[in-house]
Amino acid sequence: MEIVLFVAIILGASVLQTSTGFGFSILATPFLLLLFNVAEAIQINLILSLVISGALIFKIRLDIDMAVLKRLIAGSVAGMPVGIAIFLSADLEKLKLAISLIILLLTVLLIFSFRIKQTKRRDAFFGGLSGSLTTSIGMPGPPLLLYFSGTNTNKEKLRATTLAFYLFIYSISLMLQIIFSGTSKTIWTASGLAIPLVLAGLYLGQLLFKRIDQRTFRFVTYGILLFTGLFLLFDNL
Asked: How far apart are CA 5 and CA 179, in angstroms?
């Protein structure tokens, strides 16, 4: 049963990451926590997300908004040490509960047409939030997804810019995780076994991306956020 669940998690999350630019960590991390301890789940997520971002980035590089990307990276550099400090000192169960409530609240705001104006300062701020979440619980997606959805960023730019950002942030976060919390054979064995599933997800996700219009893309975004928020909430109550 655990093997079936692992296959479903990795394949489903890979399809979402490839088709939307953000789905892997948001979908995979909560479910990986059912199979692995916190440190293992986070590092497996980081490794596989790094594989996906690296595999896709060349093909979609022309859609990247380089100015926004630079501001996101600058913000994340400040946020990542904060995330490591949280990971090493905080009660991660309470942290996940708080994150679930934030995700649900902001998703409801987006569903009811909440909008936010994109600015340079906000780019850096949400990059910082993403950086801190990456090193603390391995989930950089929620802040950027909520921000870009609120600014009505088109799906091509959203996918390309976030994937380029993840390529940077996953690399640094994985290094910091290994330095401060160590790693294990279980992490690298599970990651290696998952790579064929990731490659299959890349192929299926590319096919799906071509069929999704902007309106459908937005509804998929809301659905993923609601699902993840509710799962984290009930898992920690």
From this structure: 30
